[in-house]
Amino acid sequence: MPDNIKTPPESMHFTLQEITAGVFAAISKAESGAMGNAGIIDLGERVIIFDTFETPTAAEDLRIASEYLTGKPATWVVNSHSHSDHWFGNQVFLQGSIVISSQTAAKLMNEYIGEVEEEKSDPSELVEFLQDQINQLETETDQNIRRVLKSSIARWESYLKSLPNLKLRLPEQLFNKKIVFHGSERCVELIDMGTVHSPGDCILTIPSEDLAFIGDIGFFHQLPFMADCDPQKWVSTLSELKNSNFVVFIPGHGPVGNVKDLETLEEYILILRKLVTDAISSGESVEYVLSNQLPEPFRTWSNGSPRMEVNTKAMFEYLTNTED
Q1: With pLDDT > 70 as the criterion, what percentage of the chain qualifies?
Q2: Please, are residues 40 and 19 in contact by the beta-carbon 8 Å criterion?
Q3: Which helix (H) or strand (E) holds 102?
Q4: For residue 230, what are the CA distances in angstroms to 141, 195, 309, 315?
Q5: What is the pLDDT of residue 244?
Q6: Order of strands across the sheet with 47-50?
Q7: Do both 185 and 47 map to the same domain?
């Protein structure tokens, strides 16, 4: 880091948190163009970026912060999985950097190319969706729903602004199972976890410092997004992480957490599974499950969030297909 610079410029998209010397979590701010979290890991001679947010604007702030903090450009850029809020910022990491993901995630990331080109040529559907949310916000009085709407509006405004210059940069290096990166300051492990939150999830662990960047296997202090998940594998993975030597977990969404946060997420998945299992046994519908009051903190988290309906439908589909 240059002598005259003590900290990188503050970003409107994220807050930097130093986990240990040379390891930083970039925690996304509400109502910004980041959406997911990211990480900066200094190995000594080389630097790893873990995820790149949803917009190049947010990713550019991440690149600048990383170079200020480490004095080096990123050597590797890891994409934890295929969802857009974790890799659409790849394009800002160019000179000498290598983008890495699991083989499974890379196949799914490739499917976004046509979708983004269609949105570039005709963004009217996105514009209409955004305007509907703005209109809803104008009359909404429930503060939780207003909070959800404001976050969603900021997300889609940022995305639409970045869309004309968005160039999807796909991974150049693919892996399965595990890669170990060696450095003079630390060694890290990149592990393909299979289908947990989504197909081809990977996590980055730093065994010497008992911490792990777990991508969207972790949603802390908020409902997870379960549309592409394997609920049973998710629960077993959370249990595996809880029983590991790691004590600090950087999630894909929410603040830096610990084993208690893993337990809370696991509890939500198990509660939802029981509700849906009972509904299927009784011949009840998705609407019946949504009418049930969840215990806290899940009741507050789900108020105004479309994720509860998304998650319930996903669990119905999963359990129905499992039974078949």
Answers
A1: 97
A2: no
A3: strand 98-102
A4: 36, 6, 17, 9
A5: 96
A6: 14-20, 23-28, 38-42, 47-50, 76-78, 98-102, 173-175
A7: yes
Please, are residues 250 and 218 in contact by the beta-carbon 8 Å criterion?
yes
Q: Mark whether 212 and 182 lie in a shared domain.
A: yes
Q: List residues bridging with 218 in a β-sheet.
A: none
Residue 87 domain-assigned? Answer: yes
185: tokens are 């300051």
In order, the DSSP letters of 283-298 are T--HHHHHTSPPPTTH
CATH of the domain at 97: 3.60.15.10
Note the Cα 130 to chain centre separation in Å.
22
Please measure the distance between the N-terminal and C-terminal CA atoms of the chain and give it in whole angstroms.
58
Would 212 be classed as within a structural domain?
Answer: yes
d(CA 83, CA 213): 16
Q: Tokens for 296?
A: 């806290």
Token pair for 71: 């004095």
Helix, coil or strand: residue 21:
coil
Tell whether the model's pLDDT for residue 1 goes beyond 60: no
Residue range 123-135: average pLDDT?
95
Number of domains in the chain: 2
Q: What is the pTM (predicted TM-score) of this model?
A: 0.93
pLDDT of residue 303: 82
* Alpha helices, DSSP H, located in the chain: 56-70, 103-110, 112-121, 124-139, 143-162, 231-242, 259-282, 286-290, 298-302, 307-323
